Structures are given as structure tokens and as C-alpha cells.
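Work Package 3 (structural annotation) set out to generate three-dimensional models for the target panel prioritized at the project kickoff. During this period the team completed the workflow that converts sequence records into C-alpha cells, so that structures can be stored uniformly alongside our sequence database. As a representative example, we reproduce one entry of 673 residues exactly as it appears in the project archive.
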Amino acid sequence: LLLLVSRGSVLAASSRTSTKTTKPLQSTTNVPRPVGIVSNLKVVSDKVEDVSSIEAWRRSFIKEGMTDEQKGLAVWTSAVKFRFQDAPPNEYLQWLNNVHDPIKTFNVYGYGMCCCAACNIAALARYAGLQARCWSINLHDVAEVYWDGSWHMLDASLINYFPKPDGKIASVEEIMTAVKEWLAQNPDYRGNNNKLYEFMRADGWQGWRKGPALLAANPFYRDGWWPSGTHGWASTMQEYDGSTCFPFENAYSQGYQVNVQLRPGERLTRNWFNRGLHINMQGGGGAPVCISAKVGQDQFGYTPRYGDLAVGRIGNGTVEYEVPLADGGFRASALAAENLACKVEDKQSPAVHVKVAGKPGVLEIRMNSSYVYLGGDLAFKAVVGKDGGITVLLSDNNGLDWKEVTKVEASGEQKVDLKTLVFRRYDYRVRFVLKGKGTGLDSLKITNDLQHSQRSLPALTQGKNTITFSAGPQEGTVTIEGATDPGSVKGKQLAYTDFHPVLNGIEETLVRVGNTGSGDVTFPVDTPGDMTRLRFGCFYRARDKKDGWDLQVSFDDGKTFKTVDRAAGPFVGIGKYVTFSDLPPGTKKALVRYSGQQVNTTCMMNLRIDADYRQPHGGFRPVKVTYVWEEGGLEKTDVHVARKPEATYTINCDSTPVMKSLTLELTTTGSGK
């Protein structure tokens, strides 16, 4: 991507016979555009795999020349490394409320329940080119992956699989057969947790070795317990007793990726600690165990064996944006800046103000994040002219609808709590409407609390650590994602209907094809810059081979549609996500349509659309990277100023570090390596 347009030549004219010179003329076509935003900022440590996107995950875990078995085990290993068994985070975006996107799980949360883990395995295995399926068994969900002509159970929830005597990994059916055969010979143990537990703990916690041979040979048991110590042999004997077993998928989404973006005046801090904030604290359930967990202790005792260098699991970070008003620095990143003048331009106060008194001034700022918002506030100094006023509005559905936040009719410091409006969101827009001569803002700061996983942060170890910094491509993303059961999320989350789709022959709940046998749902997509690609799809049910969805796009306002791919049946549940890059040049508007056909059942549990676009004022500016950690109780800091889009440097730790924080911000000058 072209980051900066080169400065044009300066033309100068002077008279040889006159002392008067003509002022140099600046080329208007080659003036460099100010860089208003730097995108895809990434800091990677050589001690932690990069899982910031599904493509990055594949580069980290799927290597050239791997067999299908090795790919399947790499999928399992990655899920074990970056997630922990705990009460699941509820975003209310996906069917049954939990988070089932593996990349979002790895980066934003780092924990979930068995249904989440099974979905993670299935989604990643399919992305790696393998077949996968999920099962609901007694009080548990597991996934299977297919290679070498058979199915193999891989459980990233309780951290196990079952090698057979020949070294091959057993399927759900084979595990269940082994358990049922033993229970048939020992019927008093069926469903009796107390008796099974006593059997397990006999002979100094070695009694379980006298149970089914397939379980007795399992290398993941420690005194009959799975690695985290929450479940063990006794629970396995109940989960696989055959009382429950049917194919079932809880539905995952795909498309989330980390894209750290910064503007002048903006700072992102991610912490290896939390302040007790979590996604379920507002109408979503109790705190997960890992809110206070310490790596290497209790249930997290096993995680260091899988490379966990964090302090705990849940991190609370912040993004702070002090909007540069007086010098007009906001113009290169604001979504709208209309009828506004800045102090540096006309020497008038306040810092930014209405330019022409008879018309409103508008300042619209987007606050999009790679990490989920748990709270936020606006702090601004208002200056209100005679008969003037300031109205603040907020949109959480890409600017389609606006809610009034506050009205200001007198000058002074203002602070507005946004928590109820932005909780569980990843993106929102704030609009200031300024009216009246002299009305404006002298300062504006937007602050948000975040939840992120500590596990995927680029941690350090004792000795030499190689840090890789990169920036680009200079792209942003507009996302459409909402619950497909609108009635169940009111007051908690957006529904897909909040994005103004057009439904034709579709029942609203679960986007279900109606009795007519066909129908479609169409979403308008708008981006601030030229689109580079559309990434979209759904998790769906299609019970007959004639059931399914055509995934379509239109770039002529719906006059014609192109079918990109087909999400076809028969499936009890499967995800289909595609990337379409053949867009007409200059595209900023598109329609995405899901066209369904039904013989038996055709519906969607999840859908997601990501429209990537070139940042209109994207480019590179120096980035300050600040690490903070402790060694032996003493605080250590490393500051590195990256002056190019790619850089590699080292950080040395004399002893085992206790990680504290990682901060990124743009800078024009500054000390550092």
C-alpha cells in the first residue's frame, strides 16, 4: 500500500532584472496527505505464538509438509494453549450466547466451556482443510477430526485424547464402547459418581488403572485427574457411558481478528492483571474462576507446560484518546468534520468551534476496538455561545441509528458515563452537534475499559527476548454481527435486525426460510474508504441436500448479484465463511445477500460480515512501544520507538520477569532504542 504520497516539486519563478521574487508555488496534486491513523500495529514476542488472526494462527501452528494427523494435533494444541475451562463469556451475539469464534476466544477471553472448546476445534480444523464434527455426550461436548480414514476425538476442554494400543487416537465411539463394556461387567458403577470416585482414588489414587484399558493407558491422567484437576476418570466414565450421544454443534462464527489502530493522541494499554472487570458482570452471570487465577497454581498448574508466561488469564486494559482539537489533528481520522474551524486556523477560541454561525458544526469520531468494551466515558470542556448548545449522540450500529447521550447548554467541564451504551460492544461512534456562534470544544478525551486475554500477549522470559514490530496494511474494517434471535438479547446486545437488513420470505428468528421454500436476507454495507475485500458467511443448519444458502454480493445497488459460494446441506450444523476480493475499484457501498432454499430446514444460528477498506488517511508514523515488568520486586521498563513499519529488537531479562503492561502510542519524537 502507498503510505505517503511524495511531495511534489516546488516551482519557483524569479526575474533576473527585478529584485522582486514570485512566491514559490506548491503542487496541489502531490502534497502528502496527513497520516490520521496507523493500522494493524502488532508486537510479537518470540516466546508466544501469534494468533491475532486465523491466518496468523495457521502460520504459527500449521507447517509445510504436515500430515493430517499432525495438523489435527496442532489444532488441539493451540486450543489447549490459549483457552481454559471456565464459565463461558456471554456476548449474546452467537447462538446460545457464548463466544465460539476461536480467534476471538484466544485474544479477548482465553476461557470458555466445553461447547466453546469443541467449536474451536471444529472451526480451526476445517480452516486447516480437515473434516470435523461435534458430539453432545453426557454432560459434555467434544469434537472429532477426520484423518487416515477414521475419526479421532480431540478434547481441548478437559485437555485429553485417547491413544489406542497402536498409537492411533480413538474416536468417540471407541471410547464409549470401552466404557460401556466395563460398565456392563460392573453395573453398580453406572451413573454412580461416588462409587466411581472411590474406585479412582483406591490404591493411592491408582485404582482407575483397573478400569477400561483404553482409559488406563491415557497419558493425560495425573492420579486419575485431568490436567486442570476439575474433572477426572470418574467423570469420564459418566460422560462416555452412552446415556447421551448425538451429533450437535453449538455454532461458531469466524472473521474476528486483532487490528490495533492508533491516532495521534491515542494510547492502548494491555495489562497482565485485571481490576475485577469481566464480560458477564452486567446481566451475564457470575465471575469466572480465572478472574483471580494465578498461572502455575491450582487449576492453572498445568498451563506453564503449554508455554503460558502470563500472570493470570483475564486482563483489563484501556484505550485513551485525547482528541487533538486546536491544531485540527482530528480531521485526518474523524468520520465527519463539518462546518468547524480550529484555533490554529483562525486564531479564535475555543480549540474547535462552529465556523459559520447559521449552520451546525458536526464532529463524528469512531471508537472501534479489537477488544471488548466493558465501560467508557467522555470528558470534554464545552464552550457554549449565546443561544447555542451541544448535543452528543452515539451509534453502536455503524451509524445507522443514533441515541442522544446528553445536551449541554452552558459552558464548563462535562463527563458522561457511556457504560450502559457501549458494554459488550467492539465499535461505536460519537457525534457532537455544535450550534451557535462561539460554540465549541476546548478539550475532548474518550476513555474505554477493555477485556483481553493475558495469554496471547507478547510476554517475556528470562534471558534474550526477540520482539518483532510491524504496522500495516493500512486498512480498517466495518463489521455487521448481531444475534439471530432478536427477542432474546433486548437490552444486552445488538440483533442482526439492527443493521437494517431487507427480509424477503424469511422468518426473523434464526433467519429461517419460511414455508414458501425460498427467501433471502440482504444487508447494506458502507465503508469510509475504498473496500478491499468482503469476508462473510454464517453458521447454518440445512438438513436436506437441497437445503442451503447462496452467499451473494452486489455492487450496483441490487440490480445484479454474484454468487460467491454456497452453504449447502445436509448438515446438522456447520460454518461457511468466504473471502471475496474481486471488487470494482472505488467501491464504498455493497449489498451482501444470503439467499436460502428449503426442503426440510434452512436457518442460520450466526452470521457475520466484515468489510475491509483502505484507510483514507492511513499511513505510518513512529510508534512508541513500552513494556513494564518486575524482576525480583523491582520495576523494569523498556521503551522502543519504531520509526519504520517493520522492526526487530531485543529485550533482556536478568531473572524471571513478572509481566505488568504493554502500551502502544504514536509519537513524533522521543527517546528509546
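Residues 68-82 form the longest helix (15 residues).
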